[in-house]
Amino acid sequence: MAAIPTIPPRHYGSKVSQMRETISQPVFAAFCAGGVAGAVSRTVVSPLERLKILFQIQSVGREEYKMSVGKGLMKMWKDEGWRGFMRGNGTNCIRIVPYSAVQFGSYNFYKKFFETSPGTDMGSFRRLVCGGTAGITSVCFTYPLDIVRTRLSIQSASFDALTKAQQAALPGMWKTMVIMYTTEGGIPALYRGILPTVAGVAPYVGLNFMTYELVRQYFTPDGDKNPSAVRKLAAGAISGAVAQTCTYPFDVLRRRFQINTMRGMSYQYKGIFDALKTIIAQEGVKGLYKGIVPNLLKVAPSMASSWLSFEMTRDFLVTLRPASEDL
């Protein structure tokens, strides 16, 4: 019998050291930590995230969820149970992990072009530019999963009367994507609504990163490098609230365009300006802020848990870097 080849202990140790060196690199660590942060934050606020979408896509004649946040959550529970709270969250996590990973990773990558030396202060405007560019990058990579998540979130929510048998036969993530591709125009169907999405995501992500780092600096005691976990949570909540409030109308437009061709909807927008004109004419300016209450309620736990889990995971990965003598 042939001898089983073995890896020399020294060679094995070298491979492990190289892997730890790769994982601990700032951009790679930020990429992995961003994925963890996205999954944690979205799962924490899944019921409010879905309720926000249901509020956003309503229009004149379609107001099954025209009610308070509490009543909306109760209706969701009564109609669909626990699955109603989590509907679309699996797809959302599959989307948000690469989305958040690319966003955090690309932000740290773009920072290299603006920092005179690692760790130096870039200034608010450069943070805004880096964050906005990172947001656009992440959207372009993961948008088809976002539009499918929106479809899954609303397809069972009483917007088009369905029997129990029909609800049980509702398509899942991949089948929904295939149906959209084959019946709604191919690849362009999977990117429907991307323009208002990019228009909203760029300033949102830019404001989020800029505000977080500014508030984080303010919360860091003199002589320390990092604020406490509680202060990081507060900084994340503040940055998310500021960014969401400033860019929320773009989020409403994104959701409306994502379901523009769905059965049971009462609108067919021709473009961004037609959508703005129609929404304001039929629903008033407040139509651009539908769903903002559950959105703001979810921002604090979502962004706080996102930033905290990101920093904890990133810091852990960075500490895996082996000592120079072990390389």
Automatic annotation (TrEMBL):
Looking at the record's lineage, which domain of life comes first? Eukaryota
Q: Check the record and name the Pfam families matching this protein.
A: Mito_carr
Entry membrane topology:
Multi-pass membrane protein
Work out whether the entry's keyword set contains Calcium: yes
Q: Which UniProt keywords apply?
A: Calcium, Membrane, Metal-binding, Mitochondrion, Mitochondrion inner membrane, Repeat, Transmembrane, Transmembrane helix, Transport
Subcellular localization is given as: Mitochondrion inner membrane
* GO BP terms in the entry: transmembrane transport
- Gene3D superfamilies named in the record: Mitochondrial carrier domain (1.50.40.10)
- Look up the record and report any one GO term of the cellular component aspect: mitochondrial inner membrane
Q: Which GO terms describe its molecular function?
A: metal ion binding
Q: Where are the Solcar repeats?
A: 25-113, 122-218, 227-316
Instruction: Return the InterPro entries for the record.
Output: MCP (IPR002067), MCP_dom_sf (IPR023395), MCP_transmembrane (IPR018108)
Predominant subcellular localization, coarse grouping: mitochondrion
Signal peptide, first to last residue: none
Function text: Mitochondrial transporter that mediates uptake of thiamine pyrophosphate (ThPP) into mitochondria.
Q: Which family does it belong to?
A: Belongs to the mitochondrial carrier (TC 2.A.29) family.
* PANTHER family membership: SOLUTE CARRIER FAMILY 25 (PTHR24089)
Q: What is this protein called?
A: Mitochondrial thiamine pyrophosphate carrier 1
Q: Can you name the source organism?
A: Calycina marina
